[in-house]
Amino acid sequence: MQVYNFFGDQHHFYNTTPTNFQTMVEDSTVAVTVDTCSTEEWLLNSQELVPIALTKAREVKGFQGRWKMIISKLEQVPSKLSDLSSHPCFSKNALCKEQLQAVSKTLREGIELAELCLKEKYEGKLRMQSDLDALIGKLDLNLKDCSLLTKTGVLGEVTLQFNVSGSITESDIETHCNIKELLARLQIGHLESKHKALDRLHDIMREDEKNVLAVFCRSNVVALVQLLTATSTRIREKTVSIICSLVESGGSCESWLVAEGVLPPLIRLVESGSAVSKEKAIVSLQRLSMTEDTTRAIVGHGGVRPLVELCQIGDSVSQSAAACTLKNISAVPEVRQVLDEEGVVKVMINLLNNGMLLGTKEYAAECLQNLTASNENLRRSVISEGGVRSILAYLDGPLPQESAVGALRNLVASVSEETLVSLGLLPCLVHVLKSGSLGAKQCAASVICRICSSIEMKKMLGEVGCIPLLINMLEAKANTARELAAQAIASLMILSQNRREVKKDDKSVPNLVQLLDPSPQNTAKKYAVCCLGSLSSCKKCKRLMISYGAIGYLKKLIDIEIPGAKKLRERLERGKLRSLFSRK
Protein backbone atom coordinates (compact mmCIF):
# COMPACT_ATOMS: atom_id res chain seq x y z
CA MET A 1 0.00 0.00 0.00
CA GLN A 2 1.18 3.55 -0.66
CA VAL A 3 0.53 6.61 1.52
CA TYR A 4 0.75 9.73 -0.62
CA ASN A 5 1.98 13.06 0.77
CA PHE A 6 1.74 16.09 -1.48
CA PHE A 7 4.36 18.85 -1.43
CA GLY A 8 3.90 21.42 -4.13
CA ASP A 9 3.79 19.73 -7.53
CA GLN A 10 5.68 16.60 -6.49
CA HIS A 11 4.14 13.40 -5.05
CA HIS A 12 6.23 11.80 -2.27
CA PHE A 13 5.23 8.40 -1.05
CA TYR A 14 6.26 5.82 1.57
CA ASN A 15 5.79 2.13 0.74
CA THR A 16 5.39 1.27 4.42
CA THR A 17 2.01 -0.42 4.79
CA PRO A 18 0.09 -3.34 3.33
CA THR A 19 -1.72 -2.96 0.04
CA ASN A 20 -5.12 -3.14 1.71
CA PHE A 21 -4.30 -0.12 3.92
CA GLN A 22 -7.23 1.89 2.58
CA THR A 23 -9.65 2.16 -0.32
CA MET A 24 -10.39 5.62 -1.73
CA VAL A 25 -13.86 6.28 -3.12
CA GLU A 26 -13.89 9.60 -4.94
CA ASP A 27 -16.23 11.84 -6.90
CA SER A 28 -15.70 15.43 -8.01
CA THR A 29 -16.19 16.90 -4.49
CA VAL A 30 -15.88 14.12 -1.92
CA ALA A 31 -13.17 11.62 -0.95
CA VAL A 32 -14.12 8.90 1.52
CA THR A 33 -11.49 6.66 3.14
CA VAL A 34 -12.61 3.17 4.06
CA ASP A 35 -10.24 1.41 6.47
CA THR A 36 -9.79 -2.27 5.69
CA CYS A 37 -6.61 -2.77 7.76
CA SER A 38 -6.29 -5.06 10.77
CA THR A 39 -4.85 -3.93 14.10
CA GLU A 40 -1.65 -5.84 13.36
CA GLU A 41 -1.26 -4.08 10.00
CA TRP A 42 -1.70 -0.66 11.65
CA LEU A 43 0.99 -1.67 14.14
CA LEU A 44 3.36 -2.58 11.32
CA ASN A 45 2.60 0.72 9.58
CA SER A 46 3.45 2.70 12.73
CA GLN A 47 6.62 0.70 13.37
CA GLU A 48 7.84 1.35 9.80
CA LEU A 49 7.05 5.07 9.98
CA VAL A 50 9.05 5.69 13.17
CA PRO A 51 12.59 5.31 11.64
CA ILE A 52 11.56 7.40 8.62
CA ALA A 53 10.25 10.15 10.90
CA LEU A 54 13.40 10.04 13.06
CA THR A 55 15.73 10.17 10.05
CA LYS A 56 13.91 13.15 8.55
CA ALA A 57 13.74 14.95 11.93
CA ARG A 58 17.49 14.57 12.53
CA GLU A 59 18.26 16.06 9.10
CA VAL A 60 16.41 19.33 9.84
CA LYS A 61 18.71 22.26 10.67
CA GLY A 62 16.15 24.95 11.58
CA PHE A 63 13.91 25.17 14.66
CA GLN A 64 16.46 23.03 16.50
CA GLY A 65 14.91 23.40 19.99
CA ARG A 66 11.54 22.14 18.81
CA TRP A 67 12.93 19.36 16.66
CA LYS A 68 15.09 18.19 19.55
CA MET A 69 11.91 17.77 21.62
CA ILE A 70 10.17 16.01 18.71
CA ILE A 71 13.09 13.58 18.31
CA SER A 72 13.09 12.72 22.03
CA LYS A 73 9.38 11.89 21.83
CA LEU A 74 9.74 9.92 18.58
CA GLU A 75 12.42 7.81 20.27
CA GLN A 76 9.86 6.77 22.91
CA VAL A 77 7.30 5.55 20.37
CA PRO A 78 8.80 2.08 19.63
CA SER A 79 8.72 0.99 23.30
CA LYS A 80 5.12 2.21 23.64
CA LEU A 81 4.12 0.27 20.52
CA SER A 82 5.89 -2.80 21.88
CA ASP A 83 4.01 -2.54 25.20
CA LEU A 84 0.74 -2.13 23.34
CA SER A 85 1.27 -5.08 21.03
CA SER A 86 2.27 -7.28 24.00
CA HIS A 87 -0.97 -6.67 25.83
CA PRO A 88 -3.24 -9.76 26.00
CA CYS A 89 -6.18 -7.74 24.72
CA PHE A 90 -4.24 -6.09 21.84
CA SER A 91 -6.13 -7.58 18.91
CA LYS A 92 -9.48 -7.88 20.70
CA ASN A 93 -10.30 -4.22 21.12
CA ALA A 94 -11.08 -1.39 18.74
CA LEU A 95 -9.30 1.07 21.04
CA CYS A 96 -5.89 -0.40 20.12
CA LYS A 97 -6.58 -0.07 16.43
CA GLU A 98 -7.78 3.51 16.80
CA GLN A 99 -4.74 4.39 18.89
CA LEU A 100 -2.40 2.98 16.24
CA GLN A 101 -4.26 4.96 13.57
CA ALA A 102 -3.69 8.12 15.64
CA VAL A 103 0.01 7.30 16.05
CA SER A 104 0.43 6.66 12.32
CA LYS A 105 -1.29 9.93 11.48
CA THR A 106 0.99 11.86 13.86
CA LEU A 107 4.10 10.18 12.44
CA ARG A 108 3.07 11.07 8.89
CA GLU A 109 2.47 14.67 9.94
CA GLY A 110 5.95 14.69 11.48
CA ILE A 111 7.48 13.42 8.23
CA GLU A 112 5.58 16.04 6.23
CA LEU A 113 6.73 18.88 8.49
CA ALA A 114 10.33 17.62 8.34
CA GLU A 115 10.14 17.61 4.53
CA LEU A 116 8.83 21.18 4.55
CA CYS A 117 11.59 22.34 6.91
CA LEU A 118 14.30 20.61 4.89
CA LYS A 119 13.10 22.28 1.67
CA GLU A 120 12.19 25.50 3.49
CA LYS A 121 8.78 25.41 1.80
CA TYR A 122 6.58 26.69 4.63
CA GLU A 123 4.28 29.65 5.07
CA GLY A 124 6.29 31.79 7.44
CA LYS A 125 8.38 31.04 10.50
CA LEU A 126 5.61 31.67 13.04
CA ARG A 127 3.23 29.33 11.24
CA MET A 128 5.82 26.55 11.25
CA GLN A 129 6.59 27.13 14.94
CA SER A 130 2.88 26.76 15.65
CA ASP A 131 2.66 23.58 13.56
CA LEU A 132 5.68 22.08 15.36
CA ASP A 133 4.18 22.92 18.76
CA ALA A 134 0.98 21.19 17.68
CA LEU A 135 3.00 18.14 16.61
CA ILE A 136 4.72 18.02 20.02
CA GLY A 137 1.28 18.12 21.65
CA LYS A 138 0.01 15.26 19.47
CA LEU A 139 3.07 13.13 20.21
CA ASP A 140 2.60 13.79 23.93
CA LEU A 141 -1.02 12.72 23.64
CA ASN A 142 -0.14 9.57 21.68
CA LEU A 143 2.50 8.54 24.23
CA LYS A 144 0.19 9.23 27.17
CA ASP A 145 -2.70 7.33 25.59
CA CYS A 146 -0.52 4.31 24.79
CA SER A 147 0.64 4.23 28.40
CA LEU A 148 -2.90 4.60 29.64
CA LEU A 149 -4.10 1.70 27.52
CA THR A 150 -1.36 -0.65 28.69
CA LYS A 151 -0.67 0.38 32.29
CA THR A 152 -3.98 1.49 33.81
CA GLY A 153 -6.07 -1.55 32.97
CA VAL A 154 -8.34 0.26 30.50
CA LEU A 155 -7.97 -2.44 27.85
CA GLY A 156 -8.63 -5.18 30.40
CA GLU A 157 -11.69 -3.36 31.74
CA VAL A 158 -13.15 -2.88 28.29
CA THR A 159 -12.39 -6.38 27.02
CA LEU A 160 -13.31 -8.17 30.26
CA GLN A 161 -16.05 -10.76 29.80
CA PHE A 162 -18.56 -11.14 32.61
CA ASN A 163 -19.52 -14.52 34.02
CA VAL A 164 -23.14 -15.12 33.09
CA SER A 165 -25.03 -16.05 36.24
CA GLY A 166 -28.26 -15.25 37.98
CA SER A 167 -30.09 -12.32 36.46
CA ILE A 168 -27.16 -11.17 34.25
CA THR A 169 -28.27 -11.73 30.68
CA GLU A 170 -26.20 -11.74 27.50
CA SER A 171 -27.73 -8.39 26.56
CA ASP A 172 -26.58 -7.00 29.94
CA ILE A 173 -23.06 -8.27 29.25
CA GLU A 174 -23.02 -6.62 25.84
CA THR A 175 -24.37 -3.40 27.33
CA HIS A 176 -21.72 -3.41 30.07
CA CYS A 177 -18.94 -3.96 27.53
CA ASN A 178 -20.21 -1.14 25.32
CA ILE A 179 -20.39 1.22 28.29
CA LYS A 180 -16.89 0.22 29.40
CA GLU A 181 -15.54 1.05 25.97
CA LEU A 182 -17.36 4.37 26.03
CA LEU A 183 -15.92 5.20 29.45
CA ALA A 184 -12.45 4.29 28.22
CA ARG A 185 -12.85 6.75 25.34
CA LEU A 186 -13.18 9.53 27.90
CA GLN A 187 -9.56 8.86 28.86
CA ILE A 188 -7.81 8.68 25.48
CA GLY A 189 -7.63 10.71 22.31
CA HIS A 190 -8.16 14.39 21.57
CA LEU A 191 -10.87 16.57 23.05
CA GLU A 192 -13.26 16.19 20.12
CA SER A 193 -13.34 12.40 20.42
CA LYS A 194 -13.80 12.69 24.18
CA HIS A 195 -16.67 15.08 23.55
CA LYS A 196 -18.41 12.52 21.33
CA ALA A 197 -17.96 9.83 23.99
CA LEU A 198 -19.29 12.25 26.60
CA ASP A 199 -22.35 12.99 24.47
CA ARG A 200 -23.17 9.31 24.17
CA LEU A 201 -22.51 8.64 27.87
CA HIS A 202 -24.76 11.56 28.82
CA ASP A 203 -27.57 10.08 26.73
CA ILE A 204 -27.08 6.59 28.18
CA MET A 205 -27.07 7.93 31.75
CA ARG A 206 -30.52 9.38 31.19
CA GLU A 207 -31.85 6.09 29.79
CA ASP A 208 -29.90 3.41 31.67
CA GLU A 209 -28.10 4.89 34.70
CA LYS A 210 -28.07 1.56 36.53
CA ASN A 211 -25.89 -0.19 33.93
CA VAL A 212 -23.46 2.74 33.76
CA LEU A 213 -23.01 2.74 37.52
CA ALA A 214 -22.49 -1.04 37.47
CA VAL A 215 -19.27 -0.73 35.45
CA PHE A 216 -17.96 2.63 36.69
CA CYS A 217 -14.45 2.60 38.17
CA ARG A 218 -11.96 5.10 39.58
CA SER A 219 -10.07 5.71 36.33
CA ASN A 220 -13.34 6.86 34.75
CA VAL A 221 -13.78 9.34 37.59
CA VAL A 222 -10.30 10.77 36.89
CA ALA A 223 -11.24 11.37 33.24
CA LEU A 224 -14.50 13.11 34.18
CA VAL A 225 -12.80 15.39 36.71
CA GLN A 226 -10.30 16.45 34.04
CA LEU A 227 -13.12 17.25 31.61
CA LEU A 228 -14.67 19.65 34.16
CA THR A 229 -11.95 22.15 33.25
CA ALA A 230 -12.40 21.87 29.46
CA THR A 231 -12.69 25.17 27.60
CA SER A 232 -15.95 24.12 25.95
CA THR A 233 -19.07 25.14 27.90
CA ARG A 234 -21.04 22.20 26.48
CA ILE A 235 -18.40 19.69 27.60
CA ARG A 236 -18.38 21.16 31.11
CA GLU A 237 -22.20 21.09 31.27
CA LYS A 238 -22.44 17.44 30.22
CA THR A 239 -19.54 16.40 32.44
CA VAL A 240 -20.97 18.05 35.56
CA SER A 241 -24.40 16.56 34.76
CA ILE A 242 -22.87 13.07 34.73
CA ILE A 243 -20.93 13.79 37.94
CA CYS A 244 -24.13 15.03 39.58
CA SER A 245 -25.84 11.73 38.71
CA LEU A 246 -22.89 9.78 40.12
CA VAL A 247 -22.95 11.76 43.36
CA GLU A 248 -26.71 11.39 43.79
CA SER A 249 -26.42 7.62 43.26
CA GLY A 250 -24.20 7.34 46.36
CA GLY A 251 -21.70 4.51 46.71
CA SER A 252 -17.95 4.68 46.25
CA CYS A 253 -18.10 7.28 43.47
CA GLU A 254 -18.38 10.10 46.02
CA SER A 255 -15.10 9.27 47.76
CA TRP A 256 -13.36 8.71 44.40
CA LEU A 257 -14.52 12.09 43.11
CA VAL A 258 -13.27 13.93 46.18
CA ALA A 259 -9.96 12.04 46.17
CA GLU A 260 -9.42 12.89 42.49
CA GLY A 261 -9.90 16.62 43.06
CA VAL A 262 -13.48 17.29 41.97
CA LEU A 263 -14.10 20.04 44.55
CA PRO A 264 -12.06 22.97 43.07
CA PRO A 265 -13.60 22.69 39.55
CA LEU A 266 -17.10 22.29 41.03
CA ILE A 267 -16.60 25.43 43.11
CA ARG A 268 -15.36 27.33 40.05
CA LEU A 269 -18.49 26.25 38.15
CA VAL A 270 -20.67 27.51 41.00
CA GLU A 271 -18.73 30.75 40.78
CA SER A 272 -18.69 31.38 37.04
CA GLY A 273 -20.28 28.48 35.13
CA SER A 274 -23.35 28.56 32.89
CA ALA A 275 -26.80 28.26 34.48
CA VAL A 276 -26.85 24.49 33.84
CA SER A 277 -23.33 24.02 35.20
CA LYS A 278 -24.05 26.09 38.31
CA GLU A 279 -27.15 24.06 39.17
CA LYS A 280 -25.50 20.65 38.68
CA ALA A 281 -22.31 21.73 40.47
CA ILE A 282 -24.15 23.04 43.53
CA VAL A 283 -26.37 19.95 43.74
CA SER A 284 -23.17 17.85 43.63
CA LEU A 285 -21.57 19.93 46.40
CA GLN A 286 -24.74 19.63 48.46
CA ARG A 287 -24.44 15.85 48.47
CA LEU A 288 -20.65 15.77 48.90
CA SER A 289 -20.77 18.19 51.85
CA MET A 290 -22.51 15.58 54.01
CA THR A 291 -19.13 14.35 55.31
CA GLU A 292 -17.01 16.49 57.64
CA ASP A 293 -13.71 16.03 55.79
CA THR A 294 -15.25 17.10 52.49
CA THR A 295 -16.91 20.06 54.22
CA ARG A 296 -13.54 21.25 55.50
CA ALA A 297 -12.08 20.82 52.01
CA ILE A 298 -14.87 22.93 50.46
CA VAL A 299 -14.07 25.72 52.92
CA GLY A 300 -10.34 25.31 52.28
CA HIS A 301 -10.85 25.67 48.52
CA GLY A 302 -12.72 28.95 48.97
CA GLY A 303 -16.18 27.49 48.44
CA VAL A 304 -18.09 29.54 51.03
CA ARG A 305 -18.22 32.87 49.16
CA PRO A 306 -19.71 31.52 45.89
CA LEU A 307 -22.26 29.54 47.94
CA VAL A 308 -23.27 32.70 49.80
CA GLU A 309 -23.61 34.58 46.50
CA LEU A 310 -25.78 31.83 45.05
CA CYS A 311 -28.10 32.07 48.06
CA GLN A 312 -28.63 35.71 47.11
CA ILE A 313 -28.96 35.57 43.33
CA GLY A 314 -29.60 31.93 42.36
CA ASP A 315 -32.81 30.40 41.06
CA SER A 316 -35.00 28.44 43.47
CA VAL A 317 -33.24 25.07 42.98
CA SER A 318 -29.72 26.50 43.19
CA GLN A 319 -30.62 28.70 46.15
CA SER A 320 -32.00 25.71 48.04
CA ALA A 321 -28.96 23.53 47.27
CA ALA A 322 -26.55 26.33 48.27
CA ALA A 323 -28.43 26.86 51.55
CA CYS A 324 -28.31 23.12 52.26
CA THR A 325 -24.56 23.01 51.54
CA LEU A 326 -23.93 25.92 53.91
CA LYS A 327 -26.11 24.19 56.48
CA ASN A 328 -23.92 21.06 56.15
CA ILE A 329 -20.78 23.18 56.48
CA SER A 330 -22.14 24.93 59.58
CA ALA A 331 -22.35 21.55 61.35
CA VAL A 332 -18.53 21.58 61.68
CA PRO A 333 -17.68 23.85 64.65
CA GLU A 334 -14.19 24.92 63.58
CA VAL A 335 -15.36 26.49 60.29
CA ARG A 336 -18.23 28.53 61.72
CA GLN A 337 -16.06 31.62 62.13
CA VAL A 338 -15.28 31.52 58.40
CA LEU A 339 -19.01 31.41 57.67
CA ASP A 340 -19.57 34.43 59.91
CA GLU A 341 -16.81 36.37 58.15
CA GLU A 342 -18.45 35.68 54.78
CA GLY A 343 -21.78 37.10 55.99
CA VAL A 344 -23.67 33.81 56.28
CA VAL A 345 -25.76 34.96 59.27
CA LYS A 346 -27.38 37.84 57.40
CA VAL A 347 -27.93 35.70 54.30
CA MET A 348 -29.61 32.90 56.27
CA ILE A 349 -31.92 35.34 58.05
CA ASN A 350 -32.84 36.78 54.66
CA LEU A 351 -33.60 33.26 53.36
CA LEU A 352 -35.72 32.61 56.42
CA ASN A 353 -37.74 35.69 55.50
CA ASN A 354 -37.74 35.44 51.72
CA GLY A 355 -36.57 31.97 50.62
CA MET A 356 -38.26 30.82 47.42
CA LEU A 357 -38.89 27.26 48.63
CA LEU A 358 -40.06 25.98 52.01
CA GLY A 359 -37.09 23.62 52.07
CA THR A 360 -34.72 26.58 51.64
CA LYS A 361 -36.17 28.21 54.77
CA GLU A 362 -35.75 24.98 56.68
CA TYR A 363 -32.07 24.76 55.64
CA ALA A 364 -31.57 28.38 56.72
CA ALA A 365 -33.15 27.65 60.12
CA GLU A 366 -30.94 24.60 60.60
CA CYS A 367 -27.85 26.60 59.62
CA LEU A 368 -28.74 29.25 62.23
CA GLN A 369 -29.28 26.49 64.79
CA ASN A 370 -25.78 25.12 64.09
CA LEU A 371 -24.14 28.55 64.12
CA THR A 372 -25.65 29.47 67.49
CA ALA A 373 -25.05 26.12 69.18
CA SER A 374 -21.88 27.06 71.06
CA ASN A 375 -20.61 30.47 69.95
CA GLU A 376 -21.78 33.51 71.91
CA ASN A 377 -20.43 35.94 69.31
CA LEU A 378 -22.52 34.26 66.61
CA ARG A 379 -25.56 34.35 68.88
CA ARG A 380 -25.15 38.09 69.33
CA SER A 381 -24.70 38.45 65.57
CA VAL A 382 -27.96 36.60 64.87
CA ILE A 383 -29.83 38.66 67.49
CA SER A 384 -28.47 41.98 66.19
CA GLU A 385 -29.52 41.09 62.63
CA GLY A 386 -33.13 40.52 63.78
CA GLY A 387 -32.83 36.76 63.78
CA VAL A 388 -35.20 36.14 66.70
CA ARG A 389 -38.05 38.02 65.02
CA SER A 390 -37.46 36.16 61.75
CA ILE A 391 -37.38 32.76 63.46
CA LEU A 392 -40.64 33.49 65.31
CA ALA A 393 -42.29 34.60 62.05
CA TYR A 394 -41.13 31.40 60.33
CA LEU A 395 -42.47 29.28 63.21
CA ASP A 396 -45.91 30.79 62.72
CA GLY A 397 -46.42 28.38 59.80
CA PRO A 398 -48.67 25.31 59.83
CA LEU A 399 -46.08 22.68 60.88
CA PRO A 400 -43.23 24.19 62.95
CA GLN A 401 -39.99 22.21 62.60
CA GLU A 402 -37.32 21.33 65.12
CA SER A 403 -34.43 23.32 63.65
CA ALA A 404 -36.04 26.75 64.01
CA VAL A 405 -37.15 26.05 67.60
CA GLY A 406 -33.64 24.71 68.25
CA ALA A 407 -32.15 28.01 67.03
CA LEU A 408 -34.58 29.83 69.30
CA ARG A 409 -33.54 27.67 72.25
CA ASN A 410 -29.89 28.65 71.62
CA LEU A 411 -30.75 32.37 71.58
CA VAL A 412 -33.29 32.94 74.39
CA ALA A 413 -30.71 33.08 77.19
CA SER A 414 -29.05 36.05 75.42
CA VAL A 415 -32.29 38.06 75.08
CA SER A 416 -34.15 39.86 77.88
CA GLU A 417 -37.55 38.55 79.05
CA GLU A 418 -39.21 41.81 78.05
CA THR A 419 -37.90 41.55 74.49
CA LEU A 420 -38.94 37.91 74.16
CA VAL A 421 -42.46 38.69 75.37
CA SER A 422 -42.76 41.75 73.10
CA LEU A 423 -41.66 39.69 70.07
CA GLY A 424 -44.44 37.13 70.74
CA LEU A 425 -42.40 34.20 72.01
CA LEU A 426 -45.06 32.80 74.36
CA PRO A 427 -47.91 32.38 71.80
CA CYS A 428 -45.32 30.92 69.44
CA LEU A 429 -44.37 28.25 72.02
CA VAL A 430 -48.04 27.33 72.46
CA HIS A 431 -48.40 27.02 68.67
CA VAL A 432 -45.34 24.74 68.50
CA LEU A 433 -46.58 22.57 71.38
CA LYS A 434 -49.93 22.21 69.59
CA SER A 435 -48.86 21.82 65.94
CA GLY A 436 -45.13 21.18 65.74
CA SER A 437 -43.24 17.99 64.99
CA LEU A 438 -42.19 15.91 68.00
CA GLY A 439 -38.67 17.32 67.76
CA ALA A 440 -40.05 20.86 67.66
CA LYS A 441 -42.20 20.16 70.74
CA GLN A 442 -39.16 18.84 72.61
CA CYS A 443 -37.22 22.01 71.76
CA ALA A 444 -40.18 24.16 72.85
CA ALA A 445 -40.23 22.40 76.23
CA SER A 446 -36.49 23.03 76.48
CA VAL A 447 -37.05 26.73 75.72
CA ILE A 448 -39.62 26.89 78.54
CA CYS A 449 -37.08 25.38 80.95
CA ARG A 450 -34.56 28.04 79.96
CA ILE A 451 -36.78 31.11 80.19
CA CYS A 452 -38.94 30.43 83.24
CA SER A 453 -36.45 31.66 85.84
CA SER A 454 -38.64 34.52 87.09
CA ILE A 455 -42.02 34.25 88.84
CA GLU A 456 -43.50 36.63 86.26
CA MET A 457 -42.40 34.45 83.33
CA LYS A 458 -43.76 31.31 85.04
CA LYS A 459 -47.07 33.10 85.51
CA MET A 460 -47.28 34.19 81.86
CA LEU A 461 -46.38 30.73 80.58
CA GLY A 462 -49.17 29.22 82.70
CA GLU A 463 -51.66 31.83 81.52
CA VAL A 464 -51.01 31.27 77.78
CA GLY A 465 -51.90 27.58 78.10
CA CYS A 466 -48.57 25.73 78.03
CA ILE A 467 -49.33 23.37 80.95
CA PRO A 468 -52.02 21.12 79.39
CA LEU A 469 -49.88 20.76 76.26
CA LEU A 470 -46.85 19.75 78.33
CA ILE A 471 -48.98 17.21 80.24
CA ASN A 472 -49.93 15.67 76.86
CA MET A 473 -46.23 15.38 76.03
CA LEU A 474 -45.76 13.12 79.05
CA GLU A 475 -47.43 10.40 76.95
CA ALA A 476 -44.88 10.67 74.13
CA LYS A 477 -43.02 7.51 73.10
CA ALA A 478 -39.67 9.31 73.02
CA ASN A 479 -37.97 9.37 76.43
CA THR A 480 -36.37 12.77 75.72
CA ALA A 481 -39.77 14.33 75.03
CA ARG A 482 -41.17 12.96 78.32
CA GLU A 483 -38.13 14.14 80.26
CA LEU A 484 -38.24 17.71 78.89
CA ALA A 485 -41.99 17.97 79.43
CA ALA A 486 -41.66 16.77 83.05
CA GLN A 487 -38.75 19.17 83.65
CA ALA A 488 -40.75 22.12 82.26
CA ILE A 489 -43.82 21.22 84.36
CA ALA A 490 -41.65 20.91 87.48
CA SER A 491 -40.25 24.41 86.87
CA LEU A 492 -43.70 25.92 86.33
CA MET A 493 -45.27 24.21 89.39
CA ILE A 494 -43.26 26.37 91.78
CA LEU A 495 -46.09 28.88 91.25
CA SER A 496 -49.33 27.95 93.06
CA GLN A 497 -51.64 28.92 90.19
CA ASN A 498 -49.70 26.65 87.88
CA ARG A 499 -50.03 23.80 90.39
CA ARG A 500 -53.79 24.31 90.24
CA GLU A 501 -53.63 24.00 86.44
CA VAL A 502 -51.82 20.69 86.76
CA LYS A 503 -54.30 19.40 89.35
CA LYS A 504 -57.23 20.23 87.05
CA ASP A 505 -55.91 18.02 84.27
CA ASP A 506 -57.17 14.44 84.73
CA LYS A 507 -54.16 13.01 82.89
CA SER A 508 -51.49 14.74 84.95
CA VAL A 509 -51.19 12.31 87.90
CA PRO A 510 -51.52 9.05 85.87
CA ASN A 511 -48.92 10.29 83.35
CA LEU A 512 -46.51 11.41 86.08
CA VAL A 513 -46.86 8.13 88.02
CA GLN A 514 -45.95 6.22 84.85
CA LEU A 515 -42.74 8.26 84.76
CA LEU A 516 -41.70 6.81 88.16
CA ASP A 517 -40.55 3.71 86.27
CA PRO A 518 -37.07 2.96 87.78
CA SER A 519 -35.52 1.63 84.54
CA PRO A 520 -32.26 3.37 83.47
CA GLN A 521 -33.83 4.35 80.14
CA ASN A 522 -36.37 6.53 81.93
CA THR A 523 -34.53 9.81 82.59
CA ALA A 524 -37.72 11.68 83.56
CA LYS A 525 -38.20 9.98 86.94
CA LYS A 526 -36.52 12.67 89.08
CA TYR A 527 -38.75 15.36 87.53
CA ALA A 528 -41.82 13.14 87.98
CA VAL A 529 -40.98 12.79 91.70
CA CYS A 530 -40.64 16.57 91.95
CA CYS A 531 -44.01 17.19 90.23
CA LEU A 532 -45.85 14.56 92.30
CA GLY A 533 -44.27 15.96 95.47
CA SER A 534 -45.78 19.35 94.64
CA LEU A 535 -49.20 17.68 94.24
CA SER A 536 -48.96 15.46 97.33
CA SER A 537 -50.67 18.04 99.60
CA CYS A 538 -53.87 17.44 97.61
CA LYS A 539 -55.86 14.46 98.99
CA LYS A 540 -57.40 13.65 95.61
CA CYS A 541 -54.02 13.62 93.93
CA LYS A 542 -52.55 11.42 96.68
CA ARG A 543 -55.34 8.89 96.29
CA LEU A 544 -54.74 8.83 92.53
CA MET A 545 -50.99 8.34 93.03
CA ILE A 546 -51.62 5.39 95.39
CA SER A 547 -54.22 3.83 93.10
CA TYR A 548 -51.83 3.98 90.11
CA GLY A 549 -49.07 2.19 92.07
CA ALA A 550 -46.79 5.10 92.99
CA ILE A 551 -45.68 3.53 96.32
CA GLY A 552 -44.29 0.44 94.61
CA TYR A 553 -42.33 2.57 92.15
CA LEU A 554 -41.04 4.84 94.93
CA LYS A 555 -39.61 1.89 96.92
CA LYS A 556 -37.39 1.09 93.94
CA LEU A 557 -36.48 4.77 93.40
CA ILE A 558 -35.38 5.04 97.05
CA ASP A 559 -32.99 2.12 96.43
CA ILE A 560 -31.36 4.03 93.56
CA GLU A 561 -31.36 7.27 95.61
CA ILE A 562 -33.62 9.45 93.49
CA PRO A 563 -33.98 12.81 95.33
CA GLY A 564 -37.40 13.32 96.97
CA ALA A 565 -38.55 9.71 96.49
CA LYS A 566 -38.33 8.80 100.22
CA LYS A 567 -40.21 11.91 101.35
CA LEU A 568 -42.97 11.39 98.77
CA ARG A 569 -43.37 7.72 99.75
CA GLU A 570 -43.71 8.67 103.42
CA ARG A 571 -46.43 11.19 102.58
CA LEU A 572 -48.34 8.67 100.50
CA GLU A 573 -48.08 5.95 103.16
CA ARG A 574 -49.33 8.33 105.85
CA GLY A 575 -52.21 9.19 103.57
CA LYS A 576 -52.87 5.50 103.00
CA LEU A 577 -53.00 4.79 106.75
CA ARG A 578 -55.34 7.70 107.37
CA SER A 579 -57.56 6.40 104.59
CA LEU A 580 -57.67 2.96 106.21
CA PHE A 581 -58.51 4.37 109.68
CA SER A 582 -61.19 6.66 108.26
CA ARG A 583 -62.89 3.64 106.63
CA LYS A 584 -62.93 1.82 110.01
From TrEMBL:
SMART domains: ARM (SM00185)
Key word Repeat present: yes
Residue stretches making up the DUF7032 domain: 46-154
Protein name: Armadillo/beta-catenin-like repeat protein
Pfam families named in the record: Arm, DUF7032
InterPro entries (UniProt xref): ARM-like (IPR011989), ARM-type_fold (IPR016024), Armadillo (IPR000225), DUF7032 (IPR054296)
Residue ranges of ARM repeats: 261-303, 343-387
Provenance organism: Medicago truncatula
Keyword terms of this UniProt record: Repeat
